[in-house]
Design a protein that fits this description.
binds calcium ion; 9 strands; alpha/beta; eight-stranded parallel beta barrel; binds SN-glycerol-3-phosphate; 16% strand; 263 residues
Length: 263
């Protein structure tokens, strides 16, 4: 059987060129030809899922405070673009492109993309909310018809997390949604290639892959797919190709696609 091409996933959108997790970054990623979009999700104080990486908004906006302590209306008044402003990117100054991005808006963008675009959604530190993040996430995916393996638009969704507990919640409530167990270091108790129950995909960081390439062979031998983050350097792309990983998660989807001969 011919292996599928490596999937190129835009990490926080095309986040090298545009401010991470904004509509500008995801529109650019789709224009660049990314196969899939990666995003982190957090719950606001009034229960909306928004795409923000850090616990606080300080680094990526002109505001201050924890996402979990702010209501969506407060977040919507902030500017998530100007910290990365560049002359050549006038769209970023349009408020719609640089205000806080709700997961709902991102799902609308994917639905309107005009071609299948997958989503890799990462639940960030979800234990604090005791299942509410996963509950809201599944509710939203269901509304968009994205909780089934094959969706009307041909896009599919997977959920990623460093928290095995979070993935178990997803697997228990929606067993058809693939889950990706993220790892920064070699998991000592699972170095033979096993993953936590319910996860079929491993998500190692590129440093782990560089330091322990044989671990990728073990994951494959155990029947798991491998999605590597965050792969920005050409030599790391080559390493991922040589190891036969299934997805490359990168801030530079355009450059990686070009390197893979798909530009
Ligand atoms: O795609 C997984 C990767 O995003 C995990 O690390 O810190 O960028 O969310 P982080
Ligand atoms: Ca992430």
């Amino acid at each position: 059987m011919t292996p599928l091409p490596i999937q190129v996933v835009a990490h926080r959108g095309a986040s090298e060129d545009a401010p991470e997790h904004t509509l500008a970054a995801y529109v650019k990623a789709i224009e660049d030809g990314a196969d899939a979009l990666e995003c982190d999700v957090r719950l606001t104080a009034d229960g909306h899922l928004v795409c923000v990486h850090d616990r606080r908004v300080d680094r990526t906006s002109n505001g201050r405070g924890a996402v979990s302590a702010l209501e969506l209306s407060k977040l919507a008044a902030l500017d998530f673009g100007s910290w990365k402003d560049r002359e050549e990117s006038p769209d970023w100054r349009d408020r719609e492109f640089t205000s806080v991005l709700t997961l709902e808006r991102l799902l609308e963008l994917v639905a309107d993309a005009g071609r299948p675009v997958d989503l890799a959604i990462e639940t960030k530190h979800p234990t604090r909310w005791a299942g509410q993040v996963e509950e809201r996430l599944l509710h939203l995916l269901k509304r968009f018809g994205l909780d089934a393996p094959t969706t009307p638009a041909g896009s599919s969704v997977r959920v990623m997390s460093f928290s095995a507990r979070s993935l178990q919640r997803i697997a228990a409530a929606a067993p058809t949604i693939p889950t990706v167990y993220l790892m920064q270091f070699l998991p000592l108790r699972m170095r033979d290639g096993r993953l936590p129950a319910g996860s079929g995909i491993a998500g190692p960081g590129i440093r782990l892959v560089r330091n322990h390439p044989v671990y990728i062979e073990r994951l494959h031998a155990a029947g798991h797919r491998v999605h590597v983050w965050t792969v920005n350097e050409p030599e790391d792309v080559d390493l991922c190709v040589a190891l036969g990983v299934e997805a490359i998660i990168t801030n530079r989807p355009k450059q990686v696609l070009a390197q893979l001969g798909r530009g």
